[in-house]
Design goal:
With 160 residues, the protein is of the alpha+beta class. It contains five helices and seven strands. 32% of the residues lie in helices and 18% in strands.
């Protein structure tokens, strides 16, 4: 049995990342660190890890923490992962994730993405009122048009 394994292979094998390429890229971007007694060290993809190391993986908005229980380079089934690693992510990180999920819909910046159902209904109601003239409009003579629009042409203008 091996005593050390590359961090990118281990993260891929533990299903933290979908592919090894994504794991390698995350290491290169500085999103993966190894916790040491002297502090956190940003891990390069080739960094070797040992049993009992704590690995920090930043997937915005939270940072996951995993304790290495055993080593492997081969991808495992999801049921076997708990035998090889322990999730030691603090509860505060998960609370932060819940808060962001809730406020993400409330604080969505206008103009980004598709409108929500509520915004769509309000927009449909607004544009429907504007084009169908469901509000009470009076023409200049004081006579009310059935749709609220007063036009100064008739059907004979369209017949050529």
């Amino acid at each position: 049995m091996k005593t050390e394994v590359r961090i990118d292979k281990w993260l891929w094998a533990m299903r933290v990342f979908k592919t090894r390429t994504v794991a390698t890229d995350s290491c290169k971007k500085g999103r993966v660190a190894v916790q040491t007694p002297s502090g956190e060290i940003i891990a390069k993809p080739s960094r070797m890890i040992k049993v009992d190391d704590v690995i920090l993986v930043r997937k915005p908005p939270i940072t996951y923490s995993f304790k290495v229980k055993a080593l492997t380079e081969n991808r495992l089934g999801a049921k076997l992962v708990p035998e090889y690693m322990e999730n030691v992510t603090p509860k505060e990180q998960y609370d932060l994730l819940d808060i962001i999920k809730i406020t993400g819909f409330i604080d969505r910046r206008k103009g980004l993405g598709r409108p929500t159902k509520r915004e769509g209904r309000e927009l449909a109601r607004f544009t429907g009122d504007m084009y169908t003239g469901t509000e009470d409009f009076n023409d200049f003579d004081g006579n009310e048009d059935e749709r609220g629009w007063d036009f100064d042409f008739d059907e004979s203008d369209f017949n050529d």
